[in-house]
Amino acid sequence: AQRVTQPEKLLSVFKGAPVELKCNYSYSGSPELFWYVQYSRQRLQLLLRHISRESIKGFTADLNKGETSFHLKKPFAQEEDSAMYYCALRMDMGRRALTFGSGTRLQVQP
Amino acid sequence: SAVISQKPSRDICQRGTSLTIQCQVDSQVTMMFWYRQQPGQSLTLIATANQGSEATYESGFVIDKFPISRPNLTFSTLTVSNMSPEDSSIYLCSVTGTEDGYTFGSGTRLTVV
What we know:
The structure holds 2 protein chains of 2 kinds.
Chain A: E1 3-5, E2 10-14, E3 19-21, E4 24-26, E5 32-38, E6 45-49, E7 60-61, E8 72-74, E9 83-90, E10 99-100, E11 104-109
Chain B: E1 4-7, E2 10-13, E3 19-25, E4 32-37, E5 43-49, E6 56-57, E7 68-72, E8 75-80, E9 89-96, E10 102-104, E11 108-112
Protein backbone atom coordinates (compact mmCIF):
# COMPACT_ATOMS: atom_id res chain seq x y z
CA ALA A 1 0.00 0.00 0.00
CA GLN A 2 1.11 3.55 -0.58
CA ARG A 3 2.40 5.61 2.33
CA VAL A 4 3.62 9.15 2.90
CA THR A 5 5.94 9.92 5.79
CA GLN A 6 6.69 13.33 7.24
CA PRO A 7 9.13 12.66 10.05
CA GLU A 8 8.90 16.04 11.76
CA LYS A 9 5.77 17.11 13.61
CA LEU A 10 7.20 20.54 14.31
CA LEU A 11 9.92 22.56 12.65
CA SER A 12 10.89 25.86 14.22
CA VAL A 13 13.22 28.28 12.46
CA PHE A 14 14.09 31.94 12.65
CA LYS A 15 13.04 34.42 10.00
CA GLY A 16 15.51 34.44 7.13
CA ALA A 17 16.77 30.92 7.83
CA PRO A 18 16.49 28.16 5.22
CA VAL A 19 13.65 25.69 5.55
CA GLU A 20 13.40 22.08 4.52
CA LEU A 21 10.29 20.06 5.25
CA LYS A 22 10.91 16.39 4.66
CA CYS A 23 8.59 14.02 2.83
CA ASN A 24 9.27 10.42 1.89
CA TYR A 25 6.89 8.08 0.16
CA SER A 26 6.49 4.43 -0.62
CA TYR A 27 4.65 3.36 -3.72
CA SER A 28 5.61 0.87 -6.38
CA GLY A 29 4.17 2.81 -9.31
CA SER A 30 4.71 6.34 -10.62
CA PRO A 31 3.08 8.67 -8.11
CA GLU A 32 2.14 12.28 -8.35
CA LEU A 33 3.29 14.29 -5.35
CA PHE A 34 1.76 17.42 -3.84
CA TRP A 35 2.39 19.84 -1.03
CA TYR A 36 -0.65 21.36 0.68
CA VAL A 37 -0.59 24.16 3.22
CA GLN A 38 -3.09 25.11 5.88
CA TYR A 39 -2.73 28.56 7.43
CA SER A 40 -4.41 29.28 10.74
CA ARG A 41 -8.21 29.23 10.40
CA GLN A 42 -8.05 28.64 6.65
CA ARG A 43 -8.81 25.64 4.50
CA LEU A 44 -6.23 23.37 2.94
CA GLN A 45 -4.81 24.80 -0.23
CA LEU A 46 -2.46 23.52 -2.86
CA LEU A 47 1.06 24.86 -2.57
CA LEU A 48 2.71 22.98 -5.39
CA ARG A 49 2.77 19.72 -7.31
CA HIS A 50 5.78 18.02 -8.74
CA ILE A 51 4.60 17.86 -12.34
CA SER A 52 4.26 21.63 -12.61
CA ARG A 53 7.78 22.30 -11.34
CA GLU A 54 6.73 25.76 -10.20
CA SER A 55 8.04 27.87 -7.36
CA ILE A 56 5.19 29.13 -5.21
CA LYS A 57 5.81 31.73 -2.49
CA GLY A 58 9.50 30.91 -2.80
CA PHE A 59 8.97 27.22 -2.08
CA THR A 60 10.29 24.49 -4.33
CA ALA A 61 10.19 20.72 -4.20
CA ASP A 62 11.91 18.18 -6.40
CA LEU A 63 10.79 14.63 -6.78
CA ASN A 64 13.69 12.27 -6.17
CA LYS A 65 12.58 8.85 -7.30
CA GLY A 66 15.81 7.21 -6.21
CA GLU A 67 15.36 8.36 -2.63
CA THR A 68 11.54 8.36 -2.90
CA SER A 69 11.47 11.86 -1.47
CA PHE A 70 9.72 15.12 -2.21
CA HIS A 71 11.21 17.57 0.27
CA LEU A 72 9.88 21.13 0.41
CA LYS A 73 12.47 23.88 0.54
CA LYS A 74 12.67 27.61 0.89
CA PRO A 75 15.94 29.52 1.14
CA PHE A 76 14.71 32.29 3.44
CA ALA A 77 11.74 31.69 5.73
CA GLN A 78 9.20 34.43 6.41
CA GLU A 79 6.92 34.76 9.41
CA GLU A 80 3.89 34.40 7.15
CA ASP A 81 5.12 30.93 6.19
CA SER A 82 4.07 29.67 9.61
CA ALA A 83 1.45 27.03 8.90
CA MET A 84 0.74 23.32 8.74
CA TYR A 85 2.24 21.61 5.70
CA TYR A 86 1.05 18.29 4.31
CA CYS A 87 2.75 16.15 1.71
CA ALA A 88 0.35 14.05 -0.36
CA LEU A 89 0.54 11.36 -3.00
CA ARG A 90 -1.77 10.27 -5.75
CA MET A 91 -1.31 6.90 -7.38
CA ASP A 92 -0.91 6.65 -11.12
CA MET A 93 -3.86 4.32 -11.40
CA GLY A 94 -6.76 3.08 -9.34
CA ARG A 95 -7.91 5.22 -6.47
CA ARG A 96 -7.72 8.89 -7.35
CA ALA A 97 -7.91 10.26 -3.83
CA LEU A 98 -4.86 11.66 -2.14
CA THR A 99 -2.88 9.88 0.56
CA PHE A 100 -1.59 12.37 3.10
CA GLY A 101 1.38 12.46 5.37
CA SER A 102 0.91 13.33 9.02
CA GLY A 103 1.86 16.95 8.48
CA THR A 104 4.61 19.25 9.75
CA ARG A 105 3.91 22.45 11.61
CA LEU A 106 6.34 25.17 10.57
CA GLN A 107 6.93 27.95 13.05
CA VAL A 108 8.93 30.91 11.82
CA GLN A 109 10.09 33.05 14.69
CA PRO A 110 10.95 36.73 14.33
CA SER B 1 -10.60 25.90 -9.48
CA ALA B 2 -13.88 24.75 -7.96
CA VAL B 3 -15.29 26.50 -4.90
CA ILE B 4 -16.77 24.31 -2.17
CA SER B 5 -19.31 25.34 0.42
CA GLN B 6 -19.33 22.94 3.34
CA LYS B 7 -21.74 23.09 6.24
CA PRO B 8 -22.13 23.08 9.12
CA SER B 9 -18.76 24.50 10.02
CA ARG B 10 -19.01 23.03 13.51
CA ASP B 11 -21.45 21.21 15.74
CA ILE B 12 -21.66 19.70 19.17
CA CYS B 13 -23.79 16.58 19.24
CA GLN B 14 -25.05 14.12 21.78
CA ARG B 15 -23.81 10.56 21.58
CA GLY B 16 -26.18 8.24 19.78
CA THR B 17 -27.43 10.92 17.41
CA SER B 18 -26.53 11.52 13.74
CA LEU B 19 -25.18 14.53 11.87
CA THR B 20 -25.37 15.17 8.14
CA ILE B 21 -22.65 17.27 6.54
CA GLN B 22 -23.24 18.91 3.18
CA CYS B 23 -20.85 19.88 0.42
CA GLN B 24 -21.97 22.08 -2.46
CA VAL B 25 -19.63 22.72 -5.38
CA ASP B 26 -20.02 25.64 -7.78
CA SER B 27 -19.29 23.49 -10.82
CA GLN B 28 -19.83 19.92 -11.93
CA VAL B 29 -17.09 17.62 -10.73
CA THR B 30 -16.59 13.96 -11.38
CA MET B 31 -15.04 12.88 -8.12
CA MET B 32 -15.82 13.94 -4.57
CA PHE B 33 -14.00 12.61 -1.54
CA TRP B 34 -14.72 12.63 2.16
CA TYR B 35 -11.89 12.74 4.68
CA ARG B 36 -11.63 12.61 8.44
CA GLN B 37 -8.97 14.41 10.44
CA GLN B 38 -8.85 13.29 14.03
CA PRO B 39 -7.20 15.57 16.59
CA GLY B 40 -3.47 15.77 15.95
CA GLN B 41 -3.70 13.35 13.04
CA SER B 42 -3.48 13.59 9.29
CA LEU B 43 -6.33 13.33 6.81
CA THR B 44 -7.75 9.85 6.32
CA LEU B 45 -9.95 9.04 3.37
CA ILE B 46 -13.38 7.79 4.36
CA ALA B 47 -14.91 7.22 0.94
CA THR B 48 -15.22 8.35 -2.64
CA ALA B 49 -18.69 9.65 -3.47
CA ASN B 50 -19.79 8.45 -6.89
CA GLN B 51 -22.62 10.07 -8.76
CA GLY B 52 -25.30 7.56 -9.66
CA SER B 53 -23.85 4.68 -7.68
CA GLU B 54 -22.90 3.72 -4.15
CA ALA B 55 -19.93 5.32 -2.51
CA THR B 56 -16.65 3.43 -2.38
CA TYR B 57 -15.50 3.06 1.22
CA GLU B 58 -11.97 2.66 2.51
CA SER B 59 -10.93 -0.07 4.87
CA GLY B 60 -12.26 0.61 8.34
CA PHE B 61 -15.23 2.68 7.19
CA VAL B 62 -18.67 1.24 6.53
CA ILE B 63 -21.81 2.51 4.91
CA ASP B 64 -23.99 1.95 7.97
CA LYS B 65 -21.81 4.30 10.00
CA PHE B 66 -21.03 6.85 7.27
CA PRO B 67 -23.80 6.83 4.68
CA ILE B 68 -23.06 9.07 1.71
CA SER B 69 -25.32 10.55 -0.91
CA ARG B 70 -24.30 11.98 -4.28
CA PRO B 71 -27.49 12.94 -6.09
CA ASN B 72 -25.76 15.03 -8.76
CA LEU B 73 -22.37 16.30 -9.90
CA THR B 74 -22.36 19.34 -7.61
CA PHE B 75 -23.57 18.03 -4.25
CA SER B 76 -22.84 15.36 -1.67
CA THR B 77 -23.65 14.61 1.93
CA LEU B 78 -21.90 12.55 4.58
CA THR B 79 -23.82 11.37 7.62
CA VAL B 80 -22.06 10.35 10.80
CA SER B 81 -24.47 7.91 12.42
CA ASN B 82 -24.96 6.78 16.01
CA MET B 83 -22.15 9.03 17.13
CA SER B 84 -19.75 8.35 19.97
CA PRO B 85 -17.00 10.59 21.37
CA GLU B 86 -14.49 8.74 19.15
CA ASP B 87 -16.20 10.35 16.15
CA SER B 88 -15.08 13.78 17.28
CA SER B 89 -13.03 14.99 14.33
CA ILE B 90 -12.86 17.42 11.49
CA TYR B 91 -14.63 16.11 8.40
CA LEU B 92 -13.66 17.50 5.00
CA CYS B 93 -14.91 17.09 1.49
CA SER B 94 -12.66 17.45 -1.51
CA VAL B 95 -13.07 17.53 -5.26
CA THR B 96 -10.80 17.32 -8.25
CA GLY B 97 -10.67 20.50 -10.26
CA THR B 98 -10.56 21.00 -13.97
CA GLU B 99 -6.81 21.43 -13.82
CA ASP B 100 -6.69 18.18 -11.91
CA GLY B 101 -5.69 19.71 -8.64
CA TYR B 102 -7.74 19.14 -5.51
CA THR B 103 -9.91 21.66 -3.71
CA PHE B 104 -11.03 21.24 -0.11
CA GLY B 105 -13.99 22.42 1.84
CA SER B 106 -13.49 24.44 4.98
CA GLY B 107 -14.25 21.43 7.16
CA THR B 108 -16.83 20.51 9.77
CA ARG B 109 -15.55 20.36 13.32
CA LEU B 110 -17.63 17.77 15.15
CA THR B 111 -17.60 17.31 18.91
CA VAL B 112 -19.57 14.43 20.38
CA VAL B 113 -20.44 14.68 24.07
